[in-house]
Write a structure and sequence with these properties.
Layout (H helix, E strand, L loop, with lengths): L2 H15 L2 H10 L5 E6 L15 E7 L3 H5 L2 H6 L3 E5 L13 E7 L8 H11 E12 L5 H17 L9 H7 L2 E10 L8 E9 L2
Parallel strand pairs: 1-2, 1-4, 2-3, 4-5
Antiparallel strand pairs: 5-7, 6-7
The structure holds S-adenosylmethionine.
């Protein structure tokens, strides 16, 4: 891994994820997490201030980039529940099956190289009565925006640490073994190809 990917990219990704529209999206989904929570691609810890401390028992923060998670130090010190960094990719989660109450994933399904095996792993570690809480950007509904998503994707992915603009988020969630129970969508303010958001809750399919 080059110096750009290892040291500069985490700062660029952190900056890109810090925006006010994203913060408002975090406020909508993160407080839903309860019990033993697994956050996928926890990044620089931007969701930490939004968890409801009265509901979270323990947080497994899965993040393969040590440099990204190291940026969360100050935010970690402020939370009232225990946190544990899980240094792994979501395609092979080092946790026992059916041991987690909530899996939270925000703005990571765009980047995870193999999202379907990753979602299958999230389903495996979730209890059957557990919830997948998600908020992601992805494939837009408008043909013109989709064309730009497909045009821009190769360069965007190279510059953005592997982020894809055009992933079919609900399709991936369903293919990973989940039934979507609630979902909302909208464009956030900003560049349309990068801002079509999907957020909601899904249950593991028995
Ligand atoms: C755009 S950032 C989002 C960070 C954070 N979830 C947020 O909402 O701010 C994408 C994150 O996915 C992580 N990631 C990349 N590959 C991954 C994988 N295979 N499994 C889990 N996370 C991965 C990256 O290291 C990065 O922290």
């Amino acid at each position: 891994m080059g110096l750009y990917s290892k040291y500069l990219m985490p700062r660029i990704v952190d900056f890109a994820c810090r925006g006010e529209p994203n913060r408002r999206q975090r406020e909508k989904v993160v407080p839903r997490a309860a019990g033993r929570v697994l956050e996928i691609g926890a990044g620089s810890g931007l969701n930490l201030p939004h968890y409801d401390p009265g509901k979270v028992e323990h947080l497994f923060a899965l993040e393969p980039s040590a440099e990204m998670w190291a940026m969360s130090g100050e935010l970690q010190r402020k939370v009232e529940f225990t946190t544990q960094h899980v240094a792994a990719g979501a395609e092979a989660i080092p946790l026992e099956s059916a041991t987690v109450d909530t899996v939270l994933v925000t703005y990571s399904l765009c980047t995870i190289p193999n999202p379907t095996p990753a979602l299958e792993e999230m389903r495996r570690v979730l209890r059957l009565d557990g919830e997948l809480v998600f908020c992601e950007h992805g494939l837009a509904p408008d043909a013109g925006v989709r064309r730009w998503q497909r045009r821009l994707n190769p360069i965007w992915k190279r510059m953005g640490g592997g982020c894809n603009l055009d992933r079919d988020i609900p399709g991936l969630v369903r293919d990973g073994g989940f039934d979507i129970r609630e979902m909302q969508t909208m464009y956030l303010p900003g560049l349309k190809p990068a801002t079509y958001n999907y957020w909601g809750v899904a249950s593991p399919r028995p």
